[in-house]
Every structure is written in structure tokens, then in C-alpha cells.
User: Which sequence fits this backbone?
């Protein structure tokens, strides 16, 4: 079985990227990370890519805070195509993707979100769950569409909200669940 070519996009530390690359290295995920791209020049995810010997690049995002400039998104499509990417994996990528990415990779972009979607889309979902008095939070892997965290759900993992939880303590436990769920969901796709 041929390994699925992944393009991993991220803006931050890269903990989910590390979990995915470890599973690939250990032979538990039949995939090949072909490129890691970040919209942040010194993002930790680029250091992780270097550590694992994965080609990596910084992509200047343009003037917008929450999305890529059109030229940047066109360059992103080209870089992913040049790397023969089959599945785009968002690992803490803090910008919404629009055209031409959605057309270039239809039903081939996945994201992980720190809530049990459709509850609490958007930023700081774990805080939203705490403020709403929920008993359970969690994470969701989903396909990316034109909406915000609104694409088809691939998999979810629940995380209990404990008495005395702070936003930080809950977020830490959700991140642990993410690092288990994301590689497992990708394995389903790659099979």
C-alpha cells in the first residue's frame, strides 16, 4: 500500500505535528510527510519538521490576521502540488482557508478542533465549554469547508470537565486527546 502524501500546515508549537510524525516514523501511520509549511517564521512546527528531516518552509501570509492573502494562498497551493501532497493536515494553523485551496484539495483538507463540534466552533473552544457549564469537552477531526469548523466530522474524543478545572488545565487534557485522535483519524483516511 502506497503511503499517503501529507502536507502539514501550522502556526504554533507543533505538538500535533510531532504526534503525526512520530506515528509515521514508528510505522503506525501509512503516510509520508512531504512538506510542513507555517505562516509564522519562527514557529515551533518548523523546528519539529527540521528535527524529523521533513522539507519545511515559511509562507509570508500577507496583511490579514485571520486568513491568507490571495497571492499567498495561490503560492500555498503551488507548494503543496509541487510536493505531491494528497492530504492537507491543519495542525494548529490559525488562518481560515478559502479559494483556491478549497478547490485545489476538495475533501482533502482536515483540521482538528478543541471541542465536540458542532458545539463551540472558533477560537478558545475549551473556554467556551467551561463558561457554558458543560460536563464534557473534547476534540474533533473534521474536513475543512468554507465555514468555520463546520465541515463533515471524521472523529471525536471526549474529555471530562473536572471540578476545579481552569481553562489551562482543561486545554492541556484536550491537547493530550488531540495527539491520540489526530493520527488515528489520519490512519483511517490513509487506509
Assistant:
Amino acid at each position: 500500500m502506497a503511503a499517503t502524501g501529507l502536507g502539514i500546515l501550522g502556526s504554533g508549537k507543533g505538538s500535533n505535528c510531532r504526534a503525526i510524525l512520530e506515528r509515521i516514523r514508528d510505522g503506525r501511520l501509512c503516510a509520508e510527510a512531504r512538506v510542513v509549511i507555517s505562516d509564522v517564521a519562527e514557529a515551533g512546527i518548523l523546528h519539529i519538521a527540521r528535527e524529523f528531516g521533513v522539507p519545511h518552509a515559511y509562507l509570508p501570509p500577507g496583511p490579514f490576521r485571520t486568513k491568507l492573502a490571495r497571492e499567498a494562498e495561490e503560492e500555498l497551493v503551488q507548494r503543496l502540488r509541487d510536493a505531491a501532497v494528497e492530504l492537507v493536515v491543519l495542525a494548529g494553523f490559525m488562518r481560515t482557508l478559502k479559494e483556491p485551496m478549497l478547490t485545489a484539495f476538495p475533501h482533502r483538507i482536515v483540521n482538528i478542533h478543541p471541542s465536540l463540534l458542532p458545539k463551540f466552533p472558533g477560537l478558545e473552544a475549551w473556554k467556551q465549554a467551561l463558561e457554558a457549564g458543560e460536563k464534557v469537552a473534547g476534540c474533533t477531526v473534521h474536513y475543512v469547508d468554507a465555514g468555520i469548523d463546520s465541515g463533515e466530522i471524521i472523529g471525536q474524543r471526549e474529555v471530562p470537565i473536572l471540578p476545579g478545572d481552569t481553562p489551562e488545565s482543561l486545554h492541556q487534557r484536550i491537547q493530550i486527546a488531540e495527539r491520540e485522535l489526530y493520527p488515528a483519524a489520519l490512519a483511517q483516511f490513509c487506509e
Summary: The chain has a mean pLDDT of 96.
